[in-house]
Amino acid sequence: MGVVKLIIIVLLVWTGFWLLKKFKKPADRLDQKSSINKMLACSVCKVHFPENEAIIQNNKVYCSKEHLE
Fold it and tell me: Do residues 62 and 68 lie in contact, with contact meaning Cβ atoms separated by under 8 Å?
């Protein structure tokens, strides 16, 4: 009987870890999508960079203050 109980406990623990892993993944994917920024190209040098780092003036996008001037 001891071996049967051990096998049942191992299967229950494995099932628990599998369920936790399965239900944790969708939350991780949502976090990744929210952290993705749109990429923009500088009007001067054409380098691409995240939208949250852009300097926008007169409907043009710049990667730095130097390119803005």
Answer: yes
Q: 47: domain range?
A: 37-69
Q: What is the pTM of this model?
A: 0.48
At 7-17, the pLDDT tens digits run 999 999 999 99
Q: Are strands 48-50 and 60-62 parallel, antiparallel or unpaired?
A: unpaired
50: enclosing H helix or E strand: strand 48-50
Tally the C-alpha atoms within 13 A of residue 37's C-alpha that lie toward its C-beta. 10
Q: Examine the domain organization and report whether 4 and 19 are in the same domain.
A: yes
The domain tally of the chain equals 2
* pLDDT tens column, 28-51: 555 555 557 789 999 999 999 998
